[in-house]
Design brief:
- The protein folds into two domains: 11-47; 50-102.
- The protein is elongated and about 60 Å long.
- The protein has helices spanning 14-47, 53-68, 76-100.
- With 107 residues, it is an all-alpha fold.
- The longest helix has 34 residues, at 14-47.
Length: 107
């Protein structure tokens, strides 16, 4: 087997090459927009001090989501742990919202 990549574009017609190029450009734009949104989210999380554990939860979720994309997180045990922690964060956040909801309190 060769490590040299095959240039598939050379096997395509001109219209197919143009369509593939447009798809690549669109994907590049989408990825760039996602990177900007992630940077904005990260900056917002940095600028917001946590006053209680529920303020920390979105920061933990953000970091776990980043870690989940790394090679280190690709081990089965770590995937399970990440999924479990994200589920637990969601459950605890949901419980906190219910107890903090003034409409749930009796007058």
């Amino acid at each position: 087997m060769s490590d040299t990549p095959i240039d598939l574009d050379s096997h395509r017609g001109q219209e197919d090459q143009k369509a593939a190029s447009q798809r690549r450009e669109q994907l590049d734009l989408i990825q760039a927009a996602q990177a900007v949104r992630e940077e904005d989210r990260e900056q917002a999380l940095l600028e917001t001090p946590a006053l209680c554990w529920s303020d920390v939860a979105p920061k933990v979720r953000f970091l776990l989501e980043i870690f989940a994309t790394t090679e280190e997180a690709n081990q089965t045990q770590r995937k399970k742990l990440i999924a479990q922690v994200l589920r637990e964060l969601s459950r605890l956040e949901s419980q906190t919202r219910k107890t903090d909801d003034p409409s749930d309190r009796e007058a």
